[in-house]
Design brief:
The protein is built from one helix and four strands. It starts with a strand and ends in a 21-residue tail after the last strand.
């Protein structure tokens, strides 16, 4: 698991938090959004980055740090499984 902090240019409403797996959404200025929280693994991180890309957001910075807490102590983002997938 990783603690992440992603800075993007533009403003994303806090209402999008659920779509980003419950990540905290805050603003450091009128045109910069910060998404922060815990992700399960690199795959989940790339899922979030893909969602930002789909919204046309410009990635300013990305910071990650390994987390060593037990999974039951943390809420973290996991990508949704596609329906009809046999994996």
């Amino acid at each position: 698991m990783q603690q992440i902090e992603i800075h993007v240019k533009g403003e994303i409403s806090e209402k999008w938090s659920e779509w980003f797996g419950g990540l905290t959404i805050s603003h450091s200025g009128p045109d910069e959004t910060i998404l922060s929280g815990i992700v399960a693994d690199q795959s989940a991180l790339y899922g979030i980055i893909s969602r930002l890309r789909d919204l046309g957001m410009y990635l300013c910075s990305l910071n990650t740090e390994e987390v060593t807490k037990a999974p039951s102590e943390i809420n973290y983002f996991e990508p949704e499984k596609e329906q009809g997938s046999s994996r």
